[in-house]
Amino acid sequence: MYNIILFDDDSRDRFLPLTLTRPVGELRIGILSIREKWERWLDCQVSYITQAYLADKYPITVASDNYIINSSILPTEQLCSIVKGLQPSEAILKDGELIATRLNEKQIAKLMGDEEIEELQGYELDDTPLLRLTHITDIFQKNELAIRADYELITKDRSSQSLNDSNLVKGAADIFVEAGATVDCSMLNASNGPIYIGKDVQILEGSMLRGPIAICDGSLVKMGTKIYGATTIGPYSKVGGEIKNAVFQNNSNKAHDGYLGNAVIGAWCNLGAATNASNLKNNYNTVKQWSYVEEKMRSTDLQFCGLVMGDYSRSSIGTMFNTASVVGVCANVFGTGLTPKFIPSFSWGSELSTTFDIEKAVKLIERVMARRNLELSVEDRLILVKIFEESSKYRTWEQAQKE
Hints:
By secondary structure, this protein is an alpha/beta fold. Helix content is 17%, strand content 27%. The chain has seven helices and 33 strands. It has helices spanning 34-42, 77-84, 105-112, 138-141, 143-155, 358-370, 378-390; strands spanning 3-7, 45-49, 66-70, 73-74, 90-94, 97-103, 121-124, 131-132, 168-170, 175-177, 182-183, 187-189, 195-197, 202-203, 208-210, 213-215, 220-221, 226-228, 231-233, 238-239, 242-248, 253-254, 259-265, 270-271, 276-277, 288-291, 296-299, 308-309, 314-315, 320-321, 326-327, 332-333, 342-343. The strands form eight sheets. Strands 9-12-15-18-21-23-28-31-33 form a nine-stranded parallel beta sheet. A six-stranded mixed beta sheet has the order 2-1-3-6-5-7, with helices on both faces. Strands 11-14-17-20-22 form a five-stranded parallel beta sheet, with no helix packed on it.
C-alpha cells in the first residue's frame, strides 16, 4: 500500500474561507473529496502536510517510503501511473512547480524543516494534462468533470439499485442508486450527465434532477426540489428550492425555497427559508469577488458567480446575498436588503463592526451537532479559536466592502 502525503502550498489561500477549517485535500468536488479520490485510485493511506493549527486534527503519517503530492491536483489514470513510477528522490514538476515526489523519512524531516534535499532529481511534465484546482471558483466550474470522473470510478463493474415505477426517468443507464436510497414520484434526466444517488439518500416526491448530479450518502432532497447540473450535495445535507451548479461539502442545509447557483457551501451551514443568492449582475458584466490573498475585491473573469460560504455559517429567513458574496466561518447573517459582498468570519448580522462571540458561537455549533448525535471535538474548538483571532481585522475593515 502506498503512503500518500498531500501537501498544501501557497495556493491554499486561494481556497479560503473553506480552507480555514480543513486542508485542501479535504475539499469535496464531484462525488468524493480530493483525499478520497487518491485513496480509491491508489488504494492508499492519506495524511497531510498542512497549516500548523490544523495539524492536530489532520496529522502527518510518515513511513519509510512516502509519496508527496500537491493537494490541489485531482488524480487521473495517467497521473496515477506517473506517480506509481516515481523512483526514490525523484520529483515531477509542472512549470517549475512541485506536483509529486517520493521521499524517505529523513528527507521528509528536511522538507518539514524547510531544508534543501540535495539528492532530489526533478523533471517536467511537459505534455501531461492535469486536472487542478487553482481558485475556489474552480470547485463549481470543474464540478462536472469531477462528477463524471468519480461516477466512472465508483460505479465501474457494479450494479445500481432499481428505481421504482413511480419515477419518470430519462437516461437510466447513467443513473446509479446505492443501497438504502429511496426515490419516489420524481423526475430524473441523465441525458446530459450522470446522476449518482448515495447510500440512504431520500429523494421525496415531485423532485426534479437534471444531471450531472451527485447526491451523497445520507442526504435528503425535499419535495418539489429542482436541481440542475453540475451540482453536488455532500453527505448528510438537506436541500430544497432551486439549485444549479453548486457544491455542498457536508452536513449543510438549504431545506426551503430559494435560489442558489454557481456556489460553494461549506460544512454545517444553514440557509434560512427563502434565502436567495445572486449569481449574475444586472448589467451582465463579469463579477468581482473578495480575495483573501489580495485582501480586496478581484475580478473573477466570470459572468456567473454566486455564494461562497465557510463552515458553520448561516443565514436568516429571507436573506438576499449579493452576487459573488464571500462569507467566512461562523458568520450569522441577517439584515435588510442585499448583503455586503464580503462578510468576515464570526460576523453577527451584516455589519463588519459586530462580532459573534466565540463562546456563543461554539455553543450554537454544539446544539446543531447534538441534533445529529455528534460532538464538536477539542481539535475543532482550537481551530475555531484560531480563526476567531485571525479574522478580527476584517470585522472592522470597511475598506473590504469597496470595489
